[in-house]
Amino acid sequence: MSAATLIVGVLALQGAFIEHIHMLNKIPEVKEAIPVRTEEQLNSIDCLIIPGGESTAMALIAERCNMLEPLRAFVQKKPTWGTCAGMIMLAKEATGAKKGGQQLFNGLDVVVNRNQFGTQKESFQTMLHLPEILGEEPFPAVFIRAPVISQIKSDDVKIVGRLEHKHGQTEAETAVAVIQNHLFATAFHPELTSDNRLHQFFVGFALKYKN
Ligand code: GLN
């Protein structure tokens, strides 16, 4: 059996999709990494990454391209990783959304709060511990107008990354990486570093659901 077996799609309606494709192309188990814009392409992949960008724009474009329902059906059954805006899209509920709400892909049983850390200026990088998935070595996590998970609505959702931050006088912990069955979400941008351990993790995770 050849080592390269997995066809990974990266949703390419909007946002930082090329960077994910570059990261995936370095992983031996990835047979092909393709940008996904149509239902046909969605049907040809084993798993999907929803990139960071702007979730309101991504939702509008998905609706306009008739991709909303196919994506909703896909995330019900196939391994999917949402990063930043992609994490918002993968959730069932978002707060801080535009007036009238916004369309989501309805996968994760969580509430995500958009723009938790304020504006572009308040973007930051930190060494994040993800012991359950990456072991002891921390990951250089880039947070850009990042969301956080503010509520968990199912026992199936497992928090695998927490960010400690000062909020007023108190220290709080917020969930920034979760797994629910075949779904994975991170609030930061792992494709903007040269560390591809999270992409490797996702490929291994998705392979478990193949066959
Ligand atoms: N704040 C953006 C949104 O609401 C997400 C930012 C990002 O993906 N870097 O979509």
UniProtKB/TrEMBL annotation:
Mind listing the UniProt keywords for this protein, alphabetically?
Glutamine amidotransferase, Signal
Keyword flag Oxidoreductase:
no
List the signal peptide residues: 1-18
- Please give the Gene3D superfamilies that the UniProt record associates with this protein: 3.40.50.880
Q: Which SUPFAM superfamilies match?
A: Class I glutamine amidotransferase-like
- Superkingdom of origin: Eukaryota
| UniProt key word Signal | yes
Q: What is the recorded name of this protein?
A: Glutaminase
